Records
---
Amino acid sequence: MAACAIRRGFLTTVSKYNKKHTHRILSIIEGSSGLEAKRPRLPCLACGLPNIQQTRFMSSRPEGKVLETVGVFEALKQHGKYETGQLFLHSVFGYRGIVLFPWHARIYDRDVIPPMSDSKPEPPGSHGSKEVKGKTHTYYQVLIDTRDCPHISQRSQTEAVTFLANHDDSRALYAIPGLDYVSHEDILPYNSTEQVPIQHELFERFLMFNPDKTPPFSARDTLKAWQEKNHPWLELSDVHRETTENIRVTVIPFYMGMRWRYCIRLENMGSEVVQLRERHWRIFSLSGTLETVRGRGVVGREPVLSKEQPAFQYSSHVSLQAPSGHMWGTFRIERTDGSHFDVRIPPFSLESNKDDKAPPAGYTF
């Protein structure tokens, strides 16, 4: 059967494809806006999707339009989880990466109407009144191939995981480049014969080649120790999601000690081109204060969301005057005709968990 793929987010154009079909391959060629998929015109008769004739995933060298073999796609895992050392392509942002270890999170999806049991109530003063049921879902801590960072920097921060350099000073932050959290459905697994298939300064510190294992990369003691020591402030526990007029917003909060980090992903699920223009936050602290924050764009950008580049992801930080609180708000989105609409940011809790988490003071090996 011919391999089948949908054009959407692979280093600017390739994305998720039909999970019912075998998928072995994509080839990409360097274009004016990054790396673009090279796709035959004839569709697959079985599903109407583009018919990809090659049998290997290819990547272009940055110095010219020369294709080089990277690996071979594997079947998606419909059940169970991917193991440490699994190579993958990100189905939305298109970068190459490798799985370090999994996290089990609770997703609170406001697009799903739940029964009254096992639901999370709204925070005080938030928009709406419905309760949301949490569902367990697998995410992964991953390394991003540094060769792909320039091609995704306009759509996803590659230094999204930050730590406090000193827990006595909440202003001193530093980041780990090329460390990300990826949902199970965003993993497109592949294999490679290379012993160092991912370029990242932590790759050989954390992983070793093991040809007798599948996937053929094992965790070093360094990775196990790093995970154990930094687990409290790396851990992903709650994920919040809501869709407004085909714009889905996903929020993942993290406690860092004295302040919180939150990662936000906006994704255009429709066909209309839109642009984020403004943000409007409401931040409630259990000390009784309610703060309102308004501003242009996010992290200095006003990203455009289209079918070709449907998603944008960024991280930011917030401090409270109390151990816990809540955040919620809206993004002002502009259509191509100049009209606007507001996209809801799902309410999420900021919990310090001081009883069982020591404040982090940087990450260590």
---
Amino acid sequence: MEPRAGVSKQDIREQIWDYMESRNLADFPRPVHHRIPNFKAFKMARTIKVNPDAPQKNARFFVLDSKKTLLVPTPRLRTGLFNKITPPPGATKDILRKCATSQGVRNYSTPVGLDSRVLVDLVVVGSVAVSEKGWRIGKGEGYADLEYAMMVSMGAVSQGTPVVTIVHDCQVVDIPETLLEDHDLTVDYILTPTRVVTTGCARPKPAGIVWSKISCEMMGKMPVLRSLRCREEQAGKDVTLRDKHRSLPGARAALSTVRSPRELPSLESGSVPGEDVPSSTVYVGNLPRDARVSELKRALSARGAAPSRLTWQGPQRGAFLHYRDPAEAWQAISRLQGFCLGANTARVALARQQGASGPAGGRAGEPHPDP
């Protein structure tokens, strides 16, 4: 099955999905029963990363059954990067098969931190379509590409780490090279029910996270991404985000300026009434009753989280911290984890901007604590 000329990535995805659905191939691929155990790269590998999707369940089982270390990315990277799957002692094959399911991944896993110095010997990814040249198209969400880039950033993989995809034969198609971007992950081997393809792909794999492709929304959903960004920023790398300069108009970088809530900036023009927009404001609550704004400023500076300006709400025992953009706000939240002032542990949360009226009829553009 070959894609028609002038197609997009989504065209190819739809063509593959329609073909597999019409021929009842939804439960495929199942080549691992014959291919993976005899696959040379698999034999040599000690630590193997396999994506968490259902089609790779048997691949995860064979990793566990072969007494190798199995790493599975956390779903949508919301709670970290990896989980190490650790079956119970003396686990039978039936138990190992359960460990390889999505439920088993939740029940038998332990998080792997960024400082674990893990080295991955083999990467197994799913694909919607792949070419014999090693060019790959995923589901369109970009998680496999991002997972690989994050592994590069933490030193877990290198350009020499083999990348394998397991697909049905109908998913091996010609893919125009013009569809590929620098952040797209390529594969070295393709396993199908009938053959093993060595792609010989010479196109470089991602050399790390391309921060200009990362949005503030993604940063907000993935704490591990925020941690990696802080590390790379401290190392002097360019970590400018895709929407770095999107901020609320009227925000000024007058350091240490204190304003009342009445002077908060209005929303950018074109906002939909009542709709949340990305906030560059952080709310700090549960401050001591006798706290002073100068004391808070000093404590924030010591944490490396000094805002561009601060709105003091002493009677409410809180303050709004205004940063230049959402990315800086998230960075501040990361640095203020466990933040204490006096004997109180502060509540730190992203504030939300309301398009028309805030909670309980608040004014347009007024931040409020994220519930």
---
Amino acid sequence: MVKVKRLKTKEMNSSDVNFSLLKSQTNVPVEFVWPEKDMTPSEGDLDLPIVDLSGFLKGDEAETQLAAKAVRDACMAHGTFLVVNHGFKSGLAEKALETSSLFFGLSKDEKLKACRIPGNISGYTAGHSQRFSSNLPWNETLTLAFKKGPPQVLEEFLTSRLGNDRREIGQVFQEFCDAMNGLTLELMELLGISMGLKDRTYYRRFFEDGNAIFRCNYYPPCKQPDKTLGVGPHNDPTAITVLLQDDVVGLEVFAGGRWQIVRPRPGALVVNVGDTFMALSNGNYKSCYHRAVVNMEKVRRSLVFFSCPREDKLIVPPPELVQGEDASRKYPDFTWAQLQRFTQSGYRVDNTTLHNFSSWLTSHYPNN
């Protein structure tokens, strides 16, 4: 049985971390220093396919097949690709980034009104200090649970915490997440096509009643960027992640045995495969192993939309992916609720999360 590592936590919260002061310090506090193995410098830029979605969204079959092939090649290699012409309303992405800057520009006391409460996914954090006591990420985050349709949960959460004067923040994020949700369903269909499924809508239908997690990341400047990370090396436990970057370099993907830079591209969104979709593909598509580095002089911002299945739905790959003499199930049946509970109970996500979770699940539920 695999022994699951759980990191030591302590009684601490986001009010203990003030990046307005930390970013001007010459030395990074020891809590934010990462091991040398995680700080290996990147080597060059990752050559990612830029998938033009315009033909696919218009129903052009020839263009769809070209897009599907590019997606398949990328997902089998490292689990990440770029998309352009994704159908977002003009100016929406820029407005959402500006709105995130508005929130993180509030006073510390104002942001703490939206502080994450233990046991709740939504809220503000600084350095994830409420969960861990070492290897803290050099970032501030605002995380919001997203559910389709009324009530407008993002807007309601922020208004309830920050008051009606900040209602516009929630409204902009709600509109942005509605667009992201529509895009992820289109991407799920394209992923099904890329895998050659007889029912090309299999994954789209699987996620139609799902939910999502929306996160705003704010990475302050750091005097010692070679000592700390904005986000440590990890695979997302969710299904797919759609990421909007600003124009500051920071995202890096481990591919070809080395860390490589994913440079921001105007108008493009980054799509990463997560652990849940890797299980849904029966291991055919790789979960993307990535991290975020910080900058000595510049603030970096990103907006992230994590697509999740309905909490009680069994994660089971399509039957055709487990047929044939050489085919077998790579992972046991599980639900998103089980995996989320595992990752939120002291386990820090990394590149072995799905393996360790599967071993834990098999040992605790042998008849699963």
